[in-house]
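cache lookup: miss for this entity combination. No prior model stored, computing from scratch. Input as submitted by user K.M.:
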Amino acid sequence: MSWATWGIVLLRVVLVFALLLVATIINVWAERKILADMQSRIGPNRAGPWGILQTVADGLKLFFKESVIPKKAELGMYLLAPFLAVIPAFLIFMVVPFGAPFTIGGEEVVVQGADLNIGLLFILAMSSMAVYAVVLAGWSSGSKYPLIGGVRATAQAISYEAAMGLAMVAVVMWTATRGEGGTLSLAEIVARQDGNLFWIIPNWNIVPQIVAFVIFMIAIVAETNRAPFDLVEAEQEIVGGFHTEYSGMRFAMFFLAEYVNIFSMSAIAATLFLGGWNGPTWEGALPAFVSAILPTIWFLIKTYAVIFVFFWIRATLPRLRYDQLMTLGWKRLIPVALTWIVVSSVAIGVRQFGIPWS
Amino acid sequence: MGLVTELLKGLRVTGWTMLKTITGQERYTTEYPHQMRDKPQRFHGRHVLNRYPDGMEKCIGCELCAGACPADCIYVRGKENDPENPISPGERYGYVYEINMLRCIFCGLCVEACPTEAITMTKLFEMSTTNRQDAIYTREELLMREDGSVPHMFPDDELANQEDLLTADGWLRATAPSGVAAYEGVQMWQATPGPASWDPEPSQEDRDRRAEPEGG
């Protein structure tokens, strides 16, 4: 590979990294502002205009704080856990395409960290890795509440990952009918959602796969440990859950991981179901630069729409009880997801081969 | 399906609230240091040692407040007045007067015990200090100024509400005629147990006339 190729790869990675960090800063602030609006409060309004620098201030504060290590902590695991949380969170977003590929100097550049042909599997793997961080953090802290949080995380993540994976299966099956063979590459999945399904209804997977979308949304809320599924860090019951014993920069890393995860998962939801960066670019009517940047803007709008749903649900719903969480996961979501797979595969079969008895 | 309808109901509440808040509905937050809420009339704030309208101190150093204090936070020592240059109209005056605000529970029993209404409570409540020594208010810090305002610990602080010092309840209650026009004609203190039963607050003109020295 030439130097230019390497440079482009490096640039992409740095770009994804920067995007995630900036998005986190905005997301934390936006969440607090939106929650405040929903509760008729003001929200952060001191640091910077409209308080937008609040996250930066909080981050700086955490940076200068002491990172206390509990006496009973299993030191190696205790120090490793925050990194285990952050790294998968960033890696997940690496496979998400956040802009239309373009050609520069004869070289095709995909606007994406890396176009893996096993993208979806990679996402599932990485989101499972993130659970290790929670479990290990909870266990290695040598304290009761984090341990409870960690144990809860184990069961919760396993249950909801199953539902998430099954929802993805339905999407992959549907995507396979939209082009040449099946694919797990997110870039390809986005490309196959181009155009209109009929009339002005866009060819997004949400239209035929609405049930899968709902299951996926519920599962990613549980997967990122957000309200109403935040039993892992339920403040009222188990202090801070798995990150109770973490302070300073190590806590900041968990915090960062949580918000990066929200952004990544929302981006994946937008990619799988809402057409990713697809959208009108009005090429020719607008300056070339604007047309080139528009897909990224569409992508961000869709992602933030999903993130807004996260915040909205958090402002609305109380936390589930543990048995309710398990009931919802195993007795509702997974049967519905399995049924949906059967239903959509039958539908796909009928579309392709016709009704069997005719 | 009940689950889904309940979920939508909840989402509607939060969604509407957000829309209304964004489009100008009032928010419930009071931005405290910049925006003060009205305090109740009988707010139990920090104490003040009052003066008579002629400038004499009301405290006669009897230590009844210290005796009544359930938290033992008041320390008083009286001293004989100099007959040529009296500080209070009685025989003695409060020579040392200290209140430890860290101990004080703001019950107001000292106010009830005082025979001359020398000690009353203001509406001031911002008393945070950076060390324990500062929390012990001395006579100088408690004694009302000649103009009827209450001394403030940090008068130069930009957040110190100087108007609050003038309209402190202590001035209103103890040195009637009142300083607050809004309370004209209002009888403030009817059914309180204890010796005091106030007349309705007189008008501002009355107050001014009485405040002036005889024949002036």
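stored under new cache key. The beta strands of chain B are 47-49, 74-80, 92-100, 119-121, 136-137.
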